[in-house]
Amino acid sequence: MSDYKRFVAYLYEYHENSKGENRGFVRVEARSGTCQMAFQLKVISLPEGTPLNVYGFVRIREFLFGIPVGILRAGKGGISGRLLAPSVHMGDSSFSLDDLSGLLITGPEGRVYATQWDDIPILPDHFTTNASILQAPREEKEETQEIPPENPGPDGVQIASLDLSPAETQVSPLPSDPLPAPALLPDRWEALRRRHTSFCPFDDEEICDCIRLSLKDLPELRKDGWQISSSQFLLHAFYNYRHFLMGRCPGLDNAYILGVPGVFDIREQFMAGMFGFSAFKPARSETGIMGNAPFGYWYRQVQ
């Protein structure tokens, strides 16, 4: 897909499978591996704080397969908000922004708001998040049991004919060679360091050998065996600071860490902890200070 994409799509309310009134719009902007969606809907009948689930959908045969993008909440004057997602592997799936055919928002009491990016009508009754539809349908073959012809024997007794032809031998294929196991952590780490830019954001060696990464590197990291997902916390930090890092901790038996840039305050500490980033390390003083809160990296161990 191209590196930059920007467009606006109108959102309509759906009653069962019937398209209703226009309720607002979504502005979609994709840049540097990040997709930002800004929503504005005029829906004032929902209590303030009501959650609504946002999905991108892909057309799989007659189904609309939903990929979770995030959650919006109703406000006093309607529904508005901004969601961030990777442009590729959206919702930790194999689909990218270019694969989507539109967006669908679900709310309480069966409310549905949706937009399509193609010319095919939306049928919300065909929406599903069941991943089993991604499997190719099997052709059902009617099994018929062949009855051997009967030959008359002496005294009119029916004797089944015998097939004296050589039995058909079925040779089972040999099992394919097993996939190679992921490389050992030190080998994977050294290979990763050779491919990415090194930098040193800290004053000491508690976290060293740091490399600078972006969202575009996530598929490569997963392919190499690193267990790293694109959480909302990581996406929010990347949108603000345009990078995250990986490094090595000699004091923790050379454990490897994933570091997400941010500031140390109570609100961000709570959010970081929700996604497993329980430790914070301030960056060197010349890196800068955001207001009265020190800038640094929330980090957790990865393997």
Give the CATH class of the largest domain: Mainly Beta
**What is Rg?**
28 Å
Assign a percent range to the helix content.
10-25%
Spatial strand order of the main sheet:
6-3-2-1-8-7-4-5-9
| Binned strand content | 35-45%
Give the overall form.
globular
Tell me the structural class. Answer: mainly beta
Number of strands: 17
The parts where pLDDT drops under 50 for at least 5 residues are 139-182
CATH architecture of the largest domain: Sandwich
What is the count of distinct domains?
A: 2
Mean pLDDT: 79
Question: Gap between N and C termini, in Å?
Answer: 30 Å
How many individual helices? 4
Q: Could you give me the name of the CATH homologous superfamily of the largest domain?
A: Superoxide dismutase, copper/zinc binding domain
What do these coordinates show?
- The protein is mainly β and 303 residues long.
- The chain has two domains: 4-133, Immunoglobulin-like; 185-302, no CATH class.
- Helices cover 12% and strands 39% of the residues.
- The chain contains four helices and 17 strands.
- It has helices spanning 185-195, 218-223, 232-241, 266-274, and strands at residues 4-15, 18-31, 34-41, 51-60, 63-73, 79-86, 102-106, 112-116, 127-128, 150-152, 158-160, 208-213, 244-249, 255-263, 279-282, 289-290, 293-302.
- It has a nine-stranded mixed beta sheet.
- Strand 16 (289-290) and strand 17 (293-302) form a beta hairpin.
- The longest helix has 11 residues, at 185-195.
- It is globular.
- Mean pLDDT is 79; it is low at 139-182.
- Residues 208-297 form the DUF6128 domain.
- This is DUF6128 domain-containing protein.
- Residues 136-158 are annotated as: Disordered.
- It comes from Candidatus Scatomonas pullistercoris.
- InterPro entries: DUF6128 (IPR046131).
